[in-house]
Amino acid sequence: MFLLVAMLMLASPADVVISEIMYNPDGTSMGPDELMEWVELHYGGEETLNLRGMSISDGTNRLVLEDYLIQPGDYVVVAASAGAFIDLYGSTVPMVEWTGEWTKLRNSGDTVSLYGPEGSLVETVTFLDSWGSGGDSGSPADGDGSTLERIDLEGGTEESNWASSEDWDYRIVSSGNPLCWGTPGERNSRRR
Ligand SMILES: [Ca+2]
Ligand SMILES: [Ca+2]
To answer: Nearest ligand to the C-alpha of residue 33?
Structure first.
């Protein structure tokens, strides 16, 4: 019984989810894909977790997360370029460092897989550039500055659980851009 309780209290990489994806940044207002792509993770566990050794892959490239203690309920950003990200979003967004090769995310759609430190698959998101379009012809997440946001963080990775991010007012004011570049490090605008 003690062992069972102890196991339940362990922080688990399985409680980390991919919560937001910037796969096709707006080249005009943000910058090129190779600098401005990013992925946000959310941790739904109940004990502090070190993300070290967890990895993200698109099936070709793999990046491995460095030491980062994430608290229950928190978000953290994995950015293609930390410097470019901070230039655009500021330095207050929580970010985790990584080694390896950035998982260049195809703008036509791609697969993003999250792995535990032992290499076990946590989850896979296979998105298309039509996701988040809400039935319209084009999705704001496909190059217009929005991200793909996971609506229900405890829900699945299927299309119906993702939407394009909505505007953030202060960014509209400060940047003059009609879109917001997502909600990195924060609760998703489309979260349910
Ligand atoms: Ca891309
Ligand atoms: Ca977010």
So the answer is: 1
Q: Name the pTM for this structure.
A: 0.90
Q: Where are the beta strands (DSSP E) in 16-61?
A: 16-22, 38-43, 49-50, 55-57
Cα distances from 139 to residues 68, 81, 99, 135, 192, in angstroms, run 33, 24, 31, 9, 20
Please give the distance, rounded to the nearest whole angstrom, from the Cα atom of residue 35 to the centre of ligand 1. Answer: 10
Identify whether the C-beta of residue 147 lies closer than 8 Å to the C-beta of residue 163: no
Which superfamily does CATH assign the domain made up of 13-175 to? Lamin Tail domain (2.60.40.1260)
- Separation CA 8–CA 11 (nearest Å): 8
pLDDT digits (tens, 9 = 90+) for 130-155: 999 987 778 989 998 899 999 999 99
Ligand 2 mean position to 184 CA, how many Å?
A: 5
Residues 177 and 30: their CA atoms lie apart, in Å, by: 10
Domain boundaries, the chain: 13-175
What's the pLDDT tens digit per position in 62-110? 999 999 999 999 999 999 999 999 999 999 999 999 999 999 999 999 9
pLDDT tier, 173 (very low <50, low <70, confident <90, very high otherwise): very low
Instruction: Tell me the C-alpha distance between 106 and 71, whole Å.
Output: 31
